[in-house]
Inverse folding.
C-alpha cells in the first residue's frame, strides 16, 4: 500500500477543506432555493388558519378562475421576482406568521378587525412600487383596447396620463374590500 509523504498530506488537507466547503455551499444554495420556492406556493401561503379567508376570496376571483384558464398565484401578486425585493418581502411576511401564532388574526372576527390595516399596508406597497407585481402580467402596451369597454379604455388612458397605478383603481380584484373603520 502506497504511503503518502508528509508534504502530499499537507497539500491534500486544504484541498479537502476546499472541496468540503464547496459542496456544503452548493447544498446550502439548493436548500435556500428549495425553501424560497416552497414558501411561495399557494399551499404554503394558505396553510395558516387565518389565510383560509383570503383563499376562499381568491378562489372566487377572476385571478383564479377565468375564461383564459390562466391563474395568478399568491406569489404572482404578493412576491416580487427580483431577489432583493423578494427577500425584503419574505422578511416582512414573517409578521403574518407572528400574528397567526400570537392569535391576533386567528379567527374570522379578529381577521376582519385587522383587514383594513392589512389591506392598506399591501396597497401602500403596491402604490410605492407602481404595482410592479400587477405589471408582471398586465402590460399597458399589450392591452387589446378593442375588447375593452369605452369606459375602461378612457379610464386606463386617464390613469396613465395622471400617473395612477393599477391598485388605485383595482382594489378588491382578488380579495374582499375591507370596510373602512369609523373614526372615533
Amino acid at each position: 500500500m502506497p504511503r503518502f509523504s508528509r508534504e502530499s498530506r499537507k497539500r491534500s488537507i486544504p484541498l479537502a477543506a476546499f472541496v468540503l466547503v464547496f459542496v456544503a455551499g452548493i447544498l446550502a444554495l439548493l436548500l435556500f432555493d428549495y425553501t424560497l420556492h416552497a414558501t411561495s406556493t399557494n399551499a404554503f401561503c394558505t396553510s395558516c388558519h387565518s389565510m383560509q379567508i383570503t383563499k376562499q376570496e381568491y378562489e372566487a376571483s377572476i385571478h383564479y378562475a377565468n375564461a383564459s384558464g390562466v391563474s395568478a398565484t399568491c406569489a404572482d401578486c404578493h412576491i416580487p421576482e427580483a431577489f432583493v425585493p423578494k427577500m425584503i418581502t419574505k422578511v416582512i411576511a414573517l409578521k403574518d406568521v407572528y400574528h397567526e401564532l400570537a392569535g391576533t388574526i386567528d379567527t374570522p372576527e379578529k381577521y376582519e378587525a385587522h383587514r383594513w390595516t392589512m389591506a392598506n399596508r399591501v396597497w401602500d406597497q403596491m402604490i410605492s412600487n407602481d404595482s410592479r407585481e400587477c405589471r408582471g402580467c398586465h402590460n399597458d402596451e399589450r392591452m387589446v383596447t378593442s375588447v375593452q369597454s369605452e369606459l375602461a379604455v378612457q379610464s386606463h388612458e386617464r390613469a396613465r396620463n395622471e400617473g395612477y397605478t393599477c391598485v388605485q383603481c383595482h382594489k378588491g380584484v382578488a380579495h374582499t374590500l375591507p370596510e373602512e373603520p369609523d373614526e372615533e
